[in-house]
Amino acid sequence: MIAEALAASGDKTALFMFLAFVAATLVITYFSARKSTGASAYFAAGRRITGWQNGLAVAGDYMSAASFLGIAGMIAFNGYDGFMYSVGFLVAYLTVLFVVAEPLRNAGKYTMADVLAYRLKPRPVRAAASLSTLTVSVFYMIAQMVGAGTLVRQLIPGVSYEVAVIGVGILMVVYVVFGGMLATTWVQIIKAILLMSGSVLLSILVLNKFDFDLGKFFASLTAITSTGANGEVVTRNFLTPGLLFKNPWDQISLGMALVFGTAGLPHILIRFYTVPDAKTARSSVVWAMLIIGFFYIMTTFFGFGAASLLGPDYLKAHGGTNMAAPQLAHELGGEVFFAFISAVAFATILAVVAGLTISASTSFAHDFFTNVIHHGKEHRPGEEVRVARITAFVVGAAAIVIAILLGPTVNVAFLVGLAFAVAASANLPVIVFSIFWKRFTTTGAVTGLLVGLVSSIALILVSPDFMKNAWFPLKNPAIISIPLGFLGAFLGTFLSREPSAENLFAELKVRANTGLGAEKAAPH
Amino acid sequence: MKSPERNPRDLTPESASPTDIAPLGRPQDKPAHERTGAEDAAMADWAAIEADPDFISLLKAKAAFVAPATAVFVVYYFALPIGVGWFPKLMETRVWGDVNLAYVFAFSQFLMAWLLAFLYVVVAAGWDKRAAAIIAKFQSREAK
After folding, report:
1. Within this chain, do residues B67 and B90 fall inside the same structural domain, yes or no?
2. Is B23 in the A-facing interface, judged by CB distances under 8 Å?
3. A28 pLDDT above the threshold of 80
């Protein structure tokens, strides 16, 4: 029914809106690519982005397909438990604000590995750090591709999920290669504004259905009927916890991944290098928290609203878990609003993948290829940029293949939760130790990164969502793999000594806490 | 260093300009951001600053805020999954109309996060001034 309606008119509107956004961002990309000279401009936007701009960009980078499509679907299908994602995603920023943002801005340059390599031996540390950056980025990107694939399939009837994923993936990789950080930052800002206005409008339309009476809105959630696994009709109170997570440890493990993972996400961390100083880094986190928090509170209205106004059965038949927000828009605002929300969701995915591809290919080309394999020397001019492009292509291809294997029915918020677990287990322990622990060594950094990376991925592969008769009972590995990452870093350090690293700790401490010697903003 | 003439139609970001990420095998010095700690240790007397009483008291002041604030948010946050996981009956208590304690508690997390972030910004503004004073002190000392 919807598909026919779409074929009649809506697909053209949606397609037009989407194309308009892509065209606009390509123009921005074109002009900033011409303006950007040198890596400081390309990778860190000249360090001249202001606090609120960077706050919007951080919010734009963060509110991915997982937030908009994933959480809405999670709440629409499982009620309260989905809202736990919203809470965790915001509280996570306190870890970023208190622990990593300012020291990183003061002591680092372009990538997470810069901070780690400062005191330790650069080559092994950069190799391990770039491996974990690539892995986290691929995981994160898979989620975006799944979201994009389901969306395009709905926008253009007749296109299969596989074709949609491949098309979207190719478009994104091509788009990223020229952009650079300045272009990406502006794309994020525009997208954040679009996403916020779309969500506000959607929330208002939902509340309008309940005569703007919150009591009436919440009352409608107490009896949501859906069809159970055996075809029976089930009536559930969607405000009751435990509809999704039967095992309480699942909640704890997911919470740990979310709250500690954000501070290890490479594409969020590099955002703090685009601002002039630590003070601006701080204010941008606070701006981001205001915007993100407001957005996640609104997931109450469009997530629960989709459950109440459309119901899980209807959503299952119309695009599944990741299409709750666009279908709700269709119900409330007709074709045009559906088109607008779909274009916003698409823009969201496009922008996030741009940020991810930049951080992944920068890390590989710079940290691994130039510094590790070639000992900091390029054999032929332009080689590093070419390697970055090849990496962007390979990372995109890997994400496309895995997204196709997973299929359109996996919830994207769930997938992103796994990326957070990998980031929290591999990256966070070594970042914290290198900033706060004098005795920390190269061996410790490498073992910490590798143990966190391998254990989190291994546990994901043997978890209930990827294996029948799973060996590991929880959906998210963080509760085991984060302590393992810390333990790996600790044992590696304990079994080695590195006086040169200890001697440089005074310097790192002074730099991190005062900003003395930090990279300045580039002049005009 | 001036970058060589390039085709204006070429959108490829320039590499090897003064702020580039690697010396790329060319005979220039390593760019500033690429140096490791050992290579630019000479820019300030780090050990002296580290031992400076003002610097030590700045670190103490930071720790005195950050450590308890981190503890508060970690405890407050994990109280939510613990509450809904192990005390579901308590959390299903209706507080306002059909809204239960679980939702109110989850909603309060947003307010908690915003409040702590606001307090942090207020307190950290003082740290900025102290850090600037320490830098100024050592820079004038070196100039003498």
Report:
1. yes
2. yes
3. no
CB contact under 8 A, B24 and A180: no
- List the beta strands (DSSP E) in chain B: 94-96, 99-100
Contact between residue A183 and residue A33 where contact means Cβ atoms under 8 Å apart: yes
Domains assigned to chain A: 2-208+248-302+319-514 (1.20.1730.10)
CA distance A37 to chain B (A): 5
Q: Is the separation of the CB atoms in A462 and A472 below 8 Å?
A: yes
- Is residue A474 helix, strand or coil? coil
φ, ψ for residue A331, nearest 5 deg: -65, -40
The CA-atom distances, in angstroms, between A497 and each of A121, A441, A443, A501, A504 are 12, 7, 9, 9, 14
B137 and A CB contact within 8 Å:
no
Total structural domains within chain B = 2
pLDDT in tens, A77-100: 888 988 998 999 999 999 988 988
The DSSP 8-state label assigned to residue A371 in this structure reads I
Is residue A386 within 8 A of residue A227, CB to CB? The reply is: no
What ipTM does this complex have?
Answer: 0.85
Same domain, B39 and B52: no
Q: What is the pLDDT of residues A221-277, one digit of tens each?
A: 887 888 877 778 888 888 888 888 888 898 899 999 999 999 888 878 877 776 777
Tokens describing residue A486: 């810390």
Contact A430, A471 (CB under 8 A): no
> Which residue, among A151, A187, A155, A141, has the nearest Cα to A21 in the 3D structure?
A187
Determine the 3-state secondary structure of B144 from DSSP.
coil
User: Do B34 and B57 fall within a single domain?
Assistant: no
Cβ atoms of A76 and A301 within 8 Å: the answer is no
Mutate to test the interface with B, among A216, A513, A524 (most CBs of B within 10 A): A513
Q: Are residues B119 and B135 in the same domain?
A: yes
Contact list in B for residue A117 (CB cut-off 8 A) is 36
Domain that holds residue B39: 1-43
Rounded Cα gap, residues A129 and A123, in angstroms: 10
Is the CB of residue A31 less than 8 Å away from at least one CB of chain B?
A: no
> What is the pairing mode between strands B94-96 and B99-100?
antiparallel
Using CA atoms, how far apart are residues A27 and A297, in angstroms rounded to an integer? 33
DSSP string computed for A467-514: STT-SS--S--HHHHHHHHHHHHHHHHHT---HHHHHTHHHHHHHHHH
> Under an 8 A CB cutoff, do B21 and A43 touch?
yes
B33 and B55 belong to one structural domain = no
For residues B129, B132, B134, B140, the Cα torsion angle rounded to the nearest 10 degrees is -140
Helix (H) or strand (E) holding A224: strand A224-227
Quick check: A400 and A72 in contact, CB under 8 A?
no
Contact B65, A231 (CB under 8 A): no
pTM above 0.90? Answer: no
